[in-house]
Amino acid sequence: MLINPLKKLLIENQPCFVFAVRSVQNAGIVGIAQSAGYQGIYIDIQHSAIELSSAANIYQSATHAGLTALTRIPHLDPTLIGRIIDSGGHGIMLADVRYANQAEELVSAALLHPEGQRSLGMPIDPRFHELSGINLTQSINANTLLIAMIESVEGIQNVTEIVRTSGIDAIQIGSADLTASIGIPGEYGHPRLLELYTQVSNACRLAQKPFIIGGIRDVQAMQPYLSMGAAKCFFTGSDTAFIRDGAQRARLQLLQTKF
Predict the structure, then answer these.
(1) Domain regions of the chain by residue span
(2) Distance of CA 10 to CAs 3, 43, 116, 251, Å?
(3) Architecture of domain 5-255
(4) Considering the entire predicted model, what is its pTM?
(5) pLDDT, tens digit (0-9, with 9 covering 90-100), for 202-236
């Protein structure tokens, strides 16, 4: 049974919304995400000081709130991946995947036998407590969301093999790092970026797996990529940016007021 809400929506290509957690290190962020209408969050340990002990509280709160809590990691670390999932994490986003063997190693580290080689710890997720044996391992694997992030030309060149990796659920294009790596930082309408997205779109269509726009916030800038078939799964920003933008907006509104 598929009980990972974000994975289910991705498969069905239904609209879903996710933001990064980089500053708030307590489970209260789950309530904020839920009340704002989000279906998922991801703990960005690549770009923050959040420790696993803090992340675990967020994972477990997300489970009870019916949200998906992913974790973005900077490199392959099987021990860390196992601890994240054993702590209640619902999936992994692996940054800067360039070769198919990295995708294969992610699957091996994140999934249980026979799909992977992860050691089975006692599942914290209460939805698995009534299961045992093959029913338990199959259910945990089915509800673990694995996203390979493509952020380089090398990754684009090898995307066909990456996306075909059994166990990889989706590709996300890290547009900010990708445009920076090819000398056009932040130029999300550049013909070169359109060309690279087209390669990813073609590969994902053949593999029948979704690809997600990453790093682009402007709705108009997204349109060409949505027209290519990008998933309606929107990564809208981070808690850090939301706090900054809200604080700035409040200050500017007051500055415009006649005292």
Answers:
(1) 5-255
(2) 13, 19, 22, 38
(3) Alpha-Beta Barrel (3.20)
(4) 0.96
(5) 999 999 999 999 999 999 999 999 999 999 999 99
